[in-house]
Amino acid sequence: MSVIVFTIIILIGAYFAGLLGSLTGLGGGVVIIPLLTLLLGVDIHYAIGASLVSVIATSSGSAAAYVKEGITNIRLGMFLEIATTIGALVGALVAIYIPIQYIAILFGVILIFSALMSLRKKAENIISEPTYLAAKLKLYGSYPDGNGEQIAYGVTRVSGGFFMMLFAGVISGLLGIGSGALKVIAMDTIMRIPFKVSTTTSNFMIGVTAAASAVVYLQRGYIDPGISMPVVIGVLLGALTGSKILVHTKSSRWLRWVFAIVVTFLAGQMIYNGITGKI
């Protein structure tokens, strides 16, 4: 396979990965890594390195817009970033020494979990009063509801959310993905933050988490410009297209089902190749 054909395949695949990731909110890394490893035979460490660079690029673009709209809770995001950054560094350092078969199997398991989480109904459980620790750290906030009014919300179980974010950071560093599903558990289920706020705050955080992991992969020589550049361009274009489609789509339920089916298939392939040693 020539370099031009290889680059075009990555570019097209990354575009659709960014498109699917944008429409479902789980990021393009969950499709990019199986594409590179299963279809093109790229070493999983190089695939993770390219995915991390694309996560930084997409997060930086979309996070700025959400911050401007006043939805993102910056104070909460910076507090939880302490946990995810530590976790990401640990995960990235450990990943270098773990056999690629085990990484592939773990990646497949996390993919299936992400697919199931994408189909979960998002119920708003807004609490009005923050707990003692959340009040001391001033992690509570408010967000616009679309009618010009501000909806106030509190935050609960801060320590539980912090430790879940630590685990999410480790998984991000190990696998090169945003760990959106784990962040949803931390902020939605444990800390009881409104879904809109948790989604935008998570988007704000994943770029910093990925940057911490990417430093380790860069030092180890696992970020190849020939792979990373078309991945970043493709994912960015796909994410931009996805955001425009999402505005005009009344229901994203069918999109989530398509994403879940695709991701579950890729997960099965990753687990099978990991077990049989074909990766």
Automatic annotation (TrEMBL):
<keyword id="KW-0812">Transmembrane</keyword>
<dbReference type="InterPro" id="IPR052017">
    <property type="entry name" value="TSUP"/>
</dbReference>
<feature type="transmembrane region" description="Helical">
    <location>
        <begin position="7"/>
        <end position="40"/>
    </location>
</feature>
<dbReference type="InterPro" id="IPR002781">
    <property type="entry name" value="TM_pro_TauE-like"/>
</dbReference>
<dbReference type="Pfam" id="PF01925">
    <property type="entry name" value="TauE"/>
</dbReference>
<keyword id="KW-1003">Cell membrane</keyword>
<feature type="transmembrane region" description="Helical">
    <location>
        <begin position="230"/>
        <end position="248"/>
    </location>
</feature>
<feature type="transmembrane region" description="Helical">
    <location>
        <begin position="79"/>
        <end position="96"/>
    </location>
</feature>
<protein>
    <recommendedName>
        <fullName>Probable membrane transporter protein</fullName>
    </recommendedName>
</protein>
<keyword id="KW-1133">Transmembrane helix</keyword>
<feature type="transmembrane region" description="Helical">
    <location>
        <begin position="254"/>
        <end position="275"/>
    </location>
</feature>
<feature type="transmembrane region" description="Helical">
    <location>
        <begin position="162"/>
        <end position="182"/>
    </location>
</feature>
<keyword id="KW-0472">Membrane</keyword>
<keyword id="KW-0813">Transport</keyword>
<comment type="similarity">
    <text>Belongs to the 4-toluene sulfonate uptake permease (TSUP) (TC 2.A.102) family.</text>
</comment>
<feature type="transmembrane region" description="Helical">
    <location>
        <begin position="102"/>
        <end position="119"/>
    </location>
</feature>
